[in-house]
Write a structure and sequence with these properties.
The chain is α+β, with helices and mostly antiparallel strands and 135 residues long. The protein is built from four helices and five strands; from the N terminus they run E-H-H-H-E-E-E-E-H.
Length: 135
């Protein structure tokens, strides 16, 4: 059986409220990466794009950096937390200024998958040894 490994990817400072992003993230928790990307590509919410990017980032980290098999990747954790809040003011009547906050979100994606089986390197010595055995 192949070894399983967990890879993390963070996306910080998404310019949407964590509540709206978490609504979209709940659609794809505990699914395979391929299924999640198909579901999110057909989701008519603006928050789907940052979640897609976070999942694709975790997938590329797992496949390219850590050598995991892309077909076996499953989203083990997908959490959305509150990010930095920018405090701003909106002009109101009679010269007043009303405070409001621009909220942001942080997305954490953890994917779990099997490590690819490494092929044995073919060397010239093994080819010569095989040819000698055949004769």
């Amino acid at each position: 059986m192949a070894d399983t490994t967990t890879i993390r990817s963070y996306t910080k400072g998404v310019d949407q409220t964590p509540r709206k992003v978490a609504l979209v993230a709940s659609l794809v928790r505990r699914r395979t990466v391929a299924d999640a990307l198909v579901i999110l590509s057909h989701t008519p919410k603006r928050a789907a794009l940052p979640v897609i990017k976070a999942i694709e980032s975790a997938k590329s980290n797992a496949v390219n950096t850590h050598g995991l098999d892309g077909k076996t990747l499953i989203i083990s954790t997908l959490s959305v937390t509150a990010g930095v809040r920018l405090k701003r003011f909106k002009p109101a009547s009679r010269g007043r200024a009303l405070p409001f906050q621009k909220k942001s979100a942080n997305i954490l994606v953890e994917v779990t998958g099997d490590v690819k089986a490494k092929k044995k390197p073919v060397t010239a010595k093994t080819e010569v040894a095989e040819k000698v055995e055949e004769k």
